Amino acid sequence: MPFTISECTDADMPRAFELLSLAFGHEHPYIESVFPAHATAEGRRVGGERFLEFRKADPLATKIKAVDVETGNMIGHARWIVCDGGLAPEFELDGSLDLMTVDPEHQRKGVGRKLLAWGLAVADKLGVGAVVEATEYGLGLYKAAGYKVKHDYEVLLPEKWAGRETQRYWWMARPKLTTEEAEGTEQRVEVC
Ligand SMILES: CC(C)(COP(=O)(O)OP(=O)(O)OC[C@H]1O[C@@H](n2cnc3c(N)ncnc32)[C@H](O)[C@@H]1OP(=O)(O)O)[C@@H](O)C(=O)NCCC(=O)NCCS
């Protein structure tokens, strides 16, 4: 399936939120808590507006999208934070993949890998590392791209939510590459 990767516009935010809702379904306790009505028409309208607010509020964030060339539909999206000197020097954090979702109808076709490659190509060009707070769904993909698990943890819930499933996260980091390594990965991180 041919698809392109490009930067999102404001008009893409409702579909970006819809993709989050479809991709996580009802299996992700964090999404259920923050957007309890995400699967309803009203919940998606509100979610799309919040995505637009988030986008406008964060100058370091770049949202990218995957678009199916045949249908013109947006089938995946990711939100990258590229610090590029925007953080105090004591921080080693340079670039972060903040969110990535792919339409369940188009998963396992290489879309996630390309959305990841976009940000890693930027990191390699800037000569910086990259981090991600992974869910269980993205673990394999990030490991294959050179991320290593630094820490994992479970978010404990207050007693009033005792019946809810807890959420597990993996903090992963991909160190900055040497010049030779970056050259070696050029093909892998090629951007559509
Ligand atoms: C994670 C996600 C973005 C991957 O998108 P995708 O387009 O399906 O990924 P790709 O087709 O590029 O897969 C690349 C590799 O990732 C791994 N992978 C992807 N989905 C996987 C899954 N459900 N289970 C195990 N490994 C998976 C595989 O190694 C895969 O390679 P392969 O298909 O050759 O075996 C997608 O499954 C998704 O939106 N999940 C729900 C939201 C989410 O958890 N996002 C990540 C938050 S950190």
TrEMBL record:
InterPro entries: Acyl_CoA_acyltransferase, GNAT_dom, Trichothecene_AcTrans
Membrane listed as a keyword: no
Matches recorded under Gene3D superfamilies: 3.40.630.30
Keyword annotations: Acyltransferase, Transferase
Pfam family for this entry, one: Acetyltransf_1
PROSITE patterns assigned to the protein according to its UniProt record, in alphabetical order: GNAT
Domain N-acetyltransferase residue range list: 3-177
GO molecular function: acyltransferase activity, transferring groups other than amino-acyl groups
Recorded superkingdom: Eukaryota
Protein name: Acyl-CoA N-acyltransferase
